[in-house]
């Protein structure tokens, strides 16, 4: 089958021809991938910090959407031809979603609502689950203030929407070009991160901070009130001080949360901005994403 991933020790991302995945075992489903998300985390799969059980030659990718081709013993929630989306890690078949077919655990998959196409569905799992899990742990209440760094990226834009829907006052850092878009998504204030003095331009006393831009945790900490909370998605949570709870968060598969997010996306209350590209452009798409040249869009590889 056609795929995009790594062939071995050289680690270069390339187009590949891979063997078919194994037949699904108990609790597993085989999915015909229609679209698969690309994120900066995919460089970590390539022997650089996130062991998801890849067995090269293997496809990269830990999220996607498609149709069920086969179900393993004990699977009752899905049947052949059902549309699903999922974030899966580790990968039971040793290979990921940037391929024509992938083997995943059924309990990590969510049914894809009729109103959600494959491209938008594939754009949702990792970014959506990360934003939702971070906000649930930060737990800001209605009327409280939340700082998000890199609000213009795929995770940040979803976090803004999820927080604003709960009546949380969001201040986000982003490029000036993203200001109008993020205000439209519900941010109360957008600060240009290109200004090295941006922390001095915002009113402090935030109840919580969500760190998505690498290297901004130390600048954000003084802006959080005593006893507040800081969650870093960039593995650089600063030491706790002034009673501020500070931690790093790593996304986990969660089918129930993904069902919730997919229903919101299908209803149009959660807006996504995917950029679909054919699987044949996978290496170039990967290079764009890991070097920060995606322009705030979520790149999704499609079967076409």
From TrEMBL:
GO molecular function: oxidoreductase activity
Any Pfam family matching the protein: ADH_N
All copies of domain Enoyl reductase (ER), residue ranges: 8-300
Protein name per UniProt: NADP-dependent oxidoreductase
Statement: the UniProt record of this protein carries the keyword Transmembrane helix: no
Enzyme class: oxidoreductase
CDD domains linked to this entry: MDR_like_2
InterPro entries named among the record's database cross-references: ADH-like_N, ER, GroES-like_sf, Lipid_raft_assoc_Zn_ADH, NAD(P)-bd_dom_sf
């Amino acid at each position: 089958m056609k795929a995009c991933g790594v062939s071995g020790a050289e680690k270069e991302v390339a187009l590949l021809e891979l063997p078919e995945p194994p037949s699904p075992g108990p609790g597993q489903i085989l999915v015909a991938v229609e679209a698969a998300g690309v994120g900066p985390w995919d460089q970590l799969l390539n022997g650089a910090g996130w062991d998801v059980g890849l067995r090269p030659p293997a496809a990269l990718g830990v999220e996607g959407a498609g149709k069920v081709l086969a179900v393993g013993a004990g699977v009752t929630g899905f049947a052949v031809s059902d549309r699903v989306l999922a974030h899966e890690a580790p990968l039971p078949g040793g290979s990921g979603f940037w391929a024509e077919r992938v083997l995943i655990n059924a309990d990590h998959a969510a049914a894809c609502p009729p109103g959600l196409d494959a491209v938008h569905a594939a754009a949702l799992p990792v970014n959506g689950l990360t934003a939702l899990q971070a906000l649930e742990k930060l737990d800001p209440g209605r009327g409280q203030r939340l700082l998000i760094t890199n609000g213009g990226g795929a995770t940040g834009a979803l976090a803004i929407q999820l927080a604003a829907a709960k009546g949380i006052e969001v201040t986000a850092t982003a490029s000036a070009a993203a200001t109008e878009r993020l205000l439209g998504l519900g941010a109360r204030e957008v600060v240009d991160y290109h200004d090295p003095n941006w922390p001095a331009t915002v009113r402090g006393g935030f109840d919580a901070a969500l760190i998505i831009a690498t290297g901004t945790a130390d600048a954000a900490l003084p802006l959080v009130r005593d006893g507040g909370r800081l969650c870093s998605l960039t593995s650089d949570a600063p030491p706790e001080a002034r009673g501020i709870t500070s931690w790093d968060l790593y996304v986990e598969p969660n089918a129930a949360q993904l069902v919730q997010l997919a229903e919101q996306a299908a209803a149009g209350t959660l807006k996504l901005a995917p950029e679909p590209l054919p699987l044949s452009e996978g290496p170039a798409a990967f290079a764009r994403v890991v070097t920060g040249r995606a322009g705030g869009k979520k790149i999704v590889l499609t079967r076409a």
